[in-house]
Amino acid sequence: MNNYILTGAPGAGKTSIIRSLENKGRNVVEEAATDIILLEQKQGIAKPWDNPNFLDKILSLQKERYKNSQTLKEVFFFDRSPICTYALCQFLGYTPSTLLLEEIERINELSLYHKKVFFIESLESIEHTDIRQINYQDALVFSKLHFEIYTQLDFECISIPPQELEKRVSLILQHI
User: Fold this and answer.
1) What single-letter DSSP state applies at residue 97?
2) Residues 147-153: what's their mean pLDDT?
């Protein structure tokens, strides 16, 4: 499978890595949660994550983007996956929806993603925005939860330590 996931804590640099990969001509798929948050905040919902339906909205967009990416038989880098949405569900204390549980099962049964997952380690701080309101300590807890869930689902988490952006990108490309 040529679909690689980048995961890790909020603010760890995943988006910067995705942009760099894209600038190098690599196929990338954007993070869905950010787009859902932006859309809902524009509609006047300050904290969309307070609504459990938020997770299914993310999942729906992730599934759509996955489907659209599969028209090409090339390597793709995904900024998060439905497994990350499952981790978010756990972190927020919500009961996973049937849709989310079915998608996790489908991912495993069909091996939709490569078993090597790039685990982007946290930087030393986190930049707060309207979209990213998590504090640094919670981001570390959230990051650990991602690692545990991917490991439980038999993915190999390849650690990408905090360092210069191009070194991080190079390390990822060495594993492809």
Assistant:
1) P
2) 96
What is the pTM (predicted TM-score) of this model?
A: 0.90
Token pair, residue 112, equals: 């939709």
Single out the residue of 111, 49, 125, 40 nearest to residue 81, CA to CA. 111
**Helical H segments across the chain, by residue range:** 14-23, 32-42, 53-69, 82-92, 98-110, 136-152, 165-174
Domains of the chain: 3-174 (3.40.50.300)
Angle between helices 32-42 and 82-92 (to 10 degrees): 60
Residue 154 confidence (pLDDT): 96
How long is the chain?
Answer: 176
List, as one string, the DSSP characters of 10-59: TTSSHHHHHHHHHHTT-EEE--HHHHHHHHHHHTT-S-GGGSTHHHHHHH
Structure tokens at 170: 């190079």
Tell me the HSE value of 5 on the side-chain side, using a 13 A CA sphere: 26
